Automatic annotation (TrEMBL):
Belongs to the metallo-dependent hydrolases superfamily. CpsB/CapC family. Keywords: Hydrolase, Protein phosphatase. It catalyses: O-phospho-L-tyrosyl-[protein] + H2O = L-tyrosyl-[protein] + phosphate. It comes from the Bacteria. One of its GO terms (molecular function) is manganese ion binding. Its EC number is 3.1.3.48. SUPFAM superfamilies: PHP domain-like. It is an enzyme of class 3 (hydrolase). InterPro entries: Caps_polysacc_synth_CpsB/CapC, Pol/histidinol_Pase-like. This is Tyrosine-protein phosphatase.
Length: 256
């Protein structure tokens, strides 16, 4: 199994704080059947700055440690950049990394409560330039939950999305879980990843999420999400079905 979104590199952001904690995370990932983890530290989010070159070096150092400890997990370089107007230039100069450095796929994080107005044009321009944007944990974005048509239009225009394993199994609350389910049901999401920060409250939950997928949506759905992660690392086109709109329940108001 491949995990495309994880904060396992020590001391770079709000994920792992030490090498010992990173090794503990890798051990837990291995127990869940994860063999490859794309390390995706936060970048340009107002709190953390992690340029691509620094991430590549940190990945190398952690892989050395994993081999010394005989932990059968490989770390690959990636990044979780906050959406901003300089993304294309930063991708071109190496400050922002594509996943696995050669895939062409790029994680894109939105602020928690809203989607910047320039997002539609930026994601379009990224695709024209040869990059494929992947919107991370959209189920946790307040504006997208309140206006799912905005997410539909972004996906219809070519963006991909990644939901978080913990969200799907209910760890982030019922509203977020239901929106993640609706995204699956309407072909608005394409990857499941852990977004793990530690082995305590923000762990992997990938095995639980796959079980949930199989139980509620069948083995083909679980297989497609798993295969998409593999295709991504190979730089190939991933499976995607035509997106559909999420139908919102009408609110009825009584007259007095």
């Amino acid at each position: 199994m491949i995990d495309l979104h994880c904060h396992i590199l020590p001391g770079l952001d709000d994920g792992s704080k030490t090498v010992v904690e990173s090794l503990s995370m890798a051990e837990e990932a291995s127990k869940q059947g994860i063999t490859k983890i794309v390390a995706t530290p936060h970048h340009n989010n107002g709190q953390y700055e992690n340029d691509g070159h620094d991430i590549i070096e940190a990945v190398h150092q952690l892989n050395v440690q994993l081999k010394e400890e005989n932990i059968p997990v490989e770390i690959l370089a990636g990044q979780e950049p906050r959406v901003n107007g300089n993304m294309i230039a930063d991708l071109d100069n190496g400050k922002v990394l594509t996943l696995n450095q050669t895939s062409g796929y790029v994680l894109v994080e939105f602020p928690t409560s809203q989607v910047p107005k320039y997002t539609t044009q930026l994601l379009f321009d990224m695709q024209i330039t040869g990059y494929t944007p992947i919107i991370v944990h959209p189920e946790r974005n307040q504006e997208l939950r309140e206006n799912p048509d905005k997410l539909y239009r972004l996906v219809k225009n070519g963006a991909l999305t990644q939901i978080t394993a913990g969200s799907l199994i209910g760890n982030a609350g019922k509203k977020i879980q239901r929106f993640a389910e609706q995204m699956i049901e309407t072909n608005l999401t394409h990857f499941i990843a852990s977004d793990a920060h530690n082995v305590r409250k923000r762990g992997f939950y990938m095995r639980d999420a796959l079980r949930y997928l199989k139980k509620n949506y069948g083995n083909p759905a679980a297989y497609q999400f798993t295969e998409n992660s593999e295709l991504l690392l190979l730089g190939q086109m991933v499976n995607r079905e035509p997106p559909e709109r999420i139908k919102r329940k009408k609110k009825w108001f009584s007259r007095r």
